[in-house]
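Hi support team,

I submitted a single chain yesterday and got back a structure, but I'm not sure I'm reading the token output correctly. Could someone confirm the output below corresponds to the sequence I sent? I've pasted both exactly as they appear in my results page.

Thanks,
R.
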Amino acid sequence: MHELPQQLANGLILGSLYGLIAIGYTMVYGIVQLINFAHGEIFMTGGFGALTTYMVLPDGIGIWLALPLMLLGGVLVSVIVAVAAERFAYRPLRGAPKLAPLITAIGLSLALQQVVEQFYPGAKSGRSFPQLPGGPYHVGSVTLQPADIFLFVAAPLCMGALAAFVGKTRTGRGMQATAQDPDTAKLMGINTDRIIVIAFALGAAFAAVAAIGWGLRYGQVAPTMGFLAGLKAFTAAVLGGIGNIYGAMLGGLVLGVAEALATAYIQEIPGMHQLGGGSWANVWAFVLLIVVLLVRPQGLLGERVADRA
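Hi R., thanks for writing in. Yes, this is the structure output for that exact sequence:
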């Protein structure tokens, strides 16, 4: 039990990462009812965008000075990819049967992965990512690395900024109206195409922040990093209540904590030593999703944010 605070901290850090990615899934679904399975690869391109930004900076620049520029570069790349995907892959299929954009999203996911793998030098085996200096830091019995602190700070800041944007700005209210009834919103003079583009862009921006946190925490970025991370983030979005931005973050935190605790403690239960450890972490994450959806099919927070506006 003395390890419990550390495992909870590990879970919250992992959950913050999942939650940042899950926001993109839930925003797009809440507005256009589209499950953007390419969002994991948009997350991945943000990591490579940040790495490229660091590589073109002058030699000798400190990582603390480079980090804001890396954030800007990663966000810019992710947003460009997401907006281009919306414009050229999803918008032409907006009136098509739901299966068509879903298959398109899967195809786009594979295409983005292959493009980065083939054309980014050395990407196939993963590229080293710059690390933050200092640490580890000790808070009681909890040990934190600088990358952990980055995610602890970035997740609530991003969540607070998004909540303020959606609740306080005219564009945010337009997003709520479009999510609630796009046809009526259009009749009221809201440019729904612009709202949809903004939703894609915001989700991509948060995914890029998560990608930088991933690179700082794990020490590298790779073309395949978006597949499992995106799948976990989609699970988090469904767990919290798909279409609910607060539910996405809550679902990410719950999933991260459950994964960390299952990895550490399941193997300690008599007769279940073969079902613990890191190799089973992904399995227990989806077991949690199934259990929650059996009890509460609409997710932990249920209705969309737009429905409560």
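A quick pointer for reading it: The first strand starts at residue 127 and ends at 128. Let us know if anything else looks off.

Best,
Support desk
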